[in-house]
């Protein structure tokens, strides 16, 4: 039985189309990369990266003195952490260079003023010895409440409910509203507790990270060596009595200081601004800014009695 010519022609055309289809598929497998591995590049040949949010600028304010080895670890770590979150930021290391005892709160007041003058609309009050590890710790602009990053639930050392130290993010207008931090706290401790009372009285709520998969051991890394670098916990004159009360006199508006110099420091391609700051002390109001003065007086009195 003979096959009609039109059927033979149809079979021929079908075979050609089928072979062409197979050939095209084979070529595409070799020449077109899988979508998940394809590079996205700009016309200039540069790889595209996600854009930063330019609507806000974070000022990271770090009160500082004699912690250079900690700074060398902190600077590249925090820059990498914030860059991964696409946060526009400036880092201010407020280095106390006067003869007085360390005053963390006053240095934060100074750093806030510098950050605002540089265009920052919110700040992170940040200890140099506390490194965030969990990438879910957000440093983004707090639209409603303050954000206490170093929650007592996850902080390596401090676990009481009113703790707001370590790392606290606050908007410019809220810091101004409570008049910043008290300037009466020379030496280590209690300035954060006084600041918590300021926030509470102003009706400002503090939010904290929740439902993290990490815990006390691995949410942060605390790099301060308490044996090698002992904290200045001395209490002299009437310091203990005064600093247990709410300070309604001093704060952001009256912090007294002089900027001696500013320097840009690069650590592993991470740049921070070092601000050498000289604080001023009113010895009538806070004589404990120099406990050595009381010690000299006590020594002199003992020597006088022994004569």
From TrEMBL:
Which GO annotations describe the biological process of this protein?
A: carbohydrate metabolic process; proteoglycan biosynthetic process
Protein name (database record)? Beta-1,4-N-acetylgalactosaminyltransferase
A single Gene Ontology CC term: membrane
Q: What does this protein do?
A: Catalyzes the transfer of galactose onto proteins or lipids.
- One Gene Ontology MF term: metal ion binding
Keywords, alphabetical: Glycoprotein, Glycosyltransferase, Manganese, Membrane, Metal-binding, Signal-anchor, Transferase, Transmembrane, Transmembrane helix
Pathway connected to this protein: Protein modification; protein glycosylation
What subcellular compartments does it reside in? Membrane
Membrane-related topology note: Single-pass type II membrane protein
Cofactor annotation: Mn(2+)
Keyword Transmembrane helix present in the record's keywords: the answer is yes
Record Pfam families: Glyco_transf_7C, Glyco_transf_7N
Q: Which family does it belong to?
A: Belongs to the glycosyltransferase 7 family.
Q: What is its EC number?
A: 2.4.1.-
Does the record bear Manganese in its keywords?
A: yes
Residues spanning the membrane: 12-32
Primary residence: membrane
All copies of the Galactosyltransferase C-terminal domain together span: 148-222
């Amino acid at each position: 039985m003979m096959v009609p010519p039109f059927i033979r022609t149809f079979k021929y055309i079908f075979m050609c189309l089928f072979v062409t289809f197979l050939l095209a598929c084979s070529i595409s497998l070799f020449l077109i990369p899988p979508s998940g591995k394809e590079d996205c590049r700009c016309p200039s040949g540069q790889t595209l990266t996600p854009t930063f949010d330019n609507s806000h600028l974070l000022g990271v304010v770090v009160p500082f003195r004699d912690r250079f080895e900690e700074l060398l670890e902190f600077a590249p770590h925090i820059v990498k952490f914030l860059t991964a979150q696409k946060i526009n930021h400036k880092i201010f290391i407020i280095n106390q260079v006067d003869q007085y005892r360390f005053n963390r709160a006053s240095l934060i007041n100074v750093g806030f003023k510098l950050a605002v003058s540089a265009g920052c609309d919110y700040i992170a009050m940040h200890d140099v010895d506390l490194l965030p590890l969990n990438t879910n710790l957000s440093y983004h602009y707090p639209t409603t409440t303050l954000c206490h990053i170093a929650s007592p639930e996850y902080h390596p050392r401090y676990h009481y409910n009113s703790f707001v130290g370590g790392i606290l993010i606050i908007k410019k207008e809220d810091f101004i509203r409570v008049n910043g931090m008290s300037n009466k706290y020379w030496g280590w401790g209690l300035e954060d507790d006084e600041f918590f009372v300021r926030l509470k009285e102003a009706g400002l709520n503090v939010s904290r990270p929740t439902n993290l998969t990490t815990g006390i051991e691995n949410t942060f890394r605390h790099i301060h060596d308490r044996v090698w670098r002992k904290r200045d916990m001395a209490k002299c004159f009437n310091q203990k009595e005064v600093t247990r009360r709410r300070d309604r006199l001093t704060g952001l508006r009256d912090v007294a200081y002089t900027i001696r110099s500013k320097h840009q420091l690069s650590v592993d391609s991470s740049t921070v601004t070092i601000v050498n700051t000289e604080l001023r002390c009113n010895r009538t109001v806070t004589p404990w800014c120099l406990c050595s003065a009381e010690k000299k007086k006590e020594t002199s009195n003992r020597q006088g009695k022994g004569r």
